[in-house]
Write a structure and sequence with these properties.
Elements (H helix, E strand, L loop, with lengths): L1 H10 L3 H7 L8 H21 L7 H28 L4 H23 L3 H28 L4 E3 L2 E3 L7 H19 L5 H17 L2 H18 L5 H20 L1 H11 L12 H14 L4 H6 L5 H4 L21 H32 L6 H13 L9 H26 L1
Helix pairs in contact: 1-3, 1-6, 3-5, 5-17, 7-8, 7-9, 7-17, 9-16
């Protein structure tokens, strides 16, 4: 229970970024963020090491040992890379902390959840307070028109200081809302969904909106919406509403498109995020200038730091970018082709495991569709080492553990 409260605090360590961005106050952010992250990691580590009921199967122990050895190797390799370019090692530690948090969350909550009651505790202690606080902050910003102008468009940043980050959380929370409440389908379910969709659309994040539409496509095909009369009745209402929203937001859409490219000649502007991403990808790939680097990458934390201003010796003279904005490229830069192959092997194993659990609880498929949508979003964003991914792992592991227990009970019966 204490870990859940600390995780809730960790979620809102991003809050100062929002308050500062909309001009409500000037507050520091990184210290809160890192202190809460470190506290959470220490608590989970202590629970795993000192509490006997927190156990890991032998097969998983072997996997974790292999992961630990790889992290040690890639940390040493990153130190070598940063030493060559004269950079601070701080960036390595920050990224290691993010990956470590995800690994510990998976181990901790797999052991923590021992019945559906524990899943209900997670929902009541973490999910509901988190979503209500996000609603409070974001709808207050909407009511006070406290938006941030990003690339010529006013966009909602919520409690996270970045529209894309807020959109990633909304995409995640919508999926969790569907998993937790879809069987009830009462007023709470529809109100939660409506509020979250309003926030998602206000963020103006094209990538996460498209990712969520991909998720809905999989859900619709799986549930055979095309055979439901209700689907076509709803279409009569939703399509006119969507067209009306398009007309109301037409000026903002045109402004956004005009910044991305010349709407007459379709040439990309120098300030276009599309062109910027292409230049970033080119700059990161240029770092892989030897077969050894292509095979093993440059070391953990490189993609987050080497082109980021603020680190001694960073290569911002060549290019400035807070990450690759492409997770596949991020894995390639940090871990090389070896790491990218291992990533896809692990991904395939997770998807196969989810399919096996779907036979016990069909709702598990929503997590599989969520992963598909993330794989799309990862083409233009960095998602793997973000807090939204940590929360996704928390609910994925917790829910799968309850389904695993059901499967185990059936096999015994």
């Amino acid at each position: 229970m204490t870990v859940l409260w600390v995780l809730l605090i960790r979620l809102f360590t991003e809050l100062p970024r929002s308050i500062t961005a909309v001009g409500w106050a000037e507050l520091p952010e990184n210290d809160y963020n890192r202190i809460a992250s470190a506290l959470l990691i220490l608590m989970m580590t202590g629970g795993i090491v000192f509490r006997r009921k927190l156990q890991v199967r032998f097969a998983l122990q072997q996997v974790l040992v292999a992961v630990a050895l790889l992290m040690v190797f890639y940390t040493g390799w990153a130190v070598h890379t940063f030493h060559q370019v004269g950079m601070s090692y701080t960036g390595i530690g920050v990224v290691i902390m993010r990956y470590l948090m995800e690994i510990l969350i998976a181990i901790f909550f797999w052991n923590f959840v021992r019945s559906e009651r524990d899943l209900h505790r997670i929902k009541s202690i973490f999910y509901l307070p988190a979503i209500l606080l996000i609603f409070l902050i974001t709808f207050l910003q909407i009511a006070t028109s406290s938006f941030e102008n990003i690339q010529g468009v006013d966009r909602l940043i919520g409690p996270f200081g970045n529209p894309n980050t807020l959109a990633a959380f909304m995409h995640f929370f919508i999926v969790i809302t569907i998993v937790l409440y879809v069987q009830e389908k009462g007023p709470k379910f529809w109100l939660l969904l409506l509020a979250q969709y309003v926030i998602l659309l206000y963020t103006g994040s094209i990538t996460m909106t498209l990712a969520h539409l991909l998720f809905l496509f999989y859900v619709g095909v799986s549930n055979r919406w095309y055979k439901s009369k209700l689907f076509y009745y709803a279409t009569v209402v939703i399509v006119p509403m969507a067209l009306a929203a398009f007309v109301i937001k037409l000026d903002a859409i045109q402004d956004r498109l005009a910044i991305l490219f010349n709407t007459d000649t379709f040439e990309l502007h120098s300030g276009s995020s599309i062109l910027w991403r292409w230049e970033a990808w080119t700059s990161y790939i240029s770092l892989l200038d030897s077969p050894l680097k292509w095979l093993f990458g440059l070391g953990i934390g490189t993609h987050r730091s080497i082109f980021l201003n603020g680190y001694p010796g960073s290569l911002t003279g060549i290019f400035e970018a807070p990450g690759t904005h492409n997770d596949y490229l991020a894995v390639l830069v940090d871990f090389g082709l070896l790491g990218l192959i291992l990533f896809f092997i692990c991904l395939r194993a997770v998807l196969r495991y989810l399919r096996s659990l779907e036979k016990v609880d069909p709702k598990v498929r929503y997590f599989r569709y969520y992963i598909y949508s993330l794989l799309f979003a990862m083409l233009s964003e960095n998602m793997i080492d973000q807090l939204s991914m940590s929360l996704g792992i928390l609910f994925l592991v917790s829910y799968c553990k309850t389904v695993y227990l059901k499967k185990h009970e059936r096999s015994i019966a």
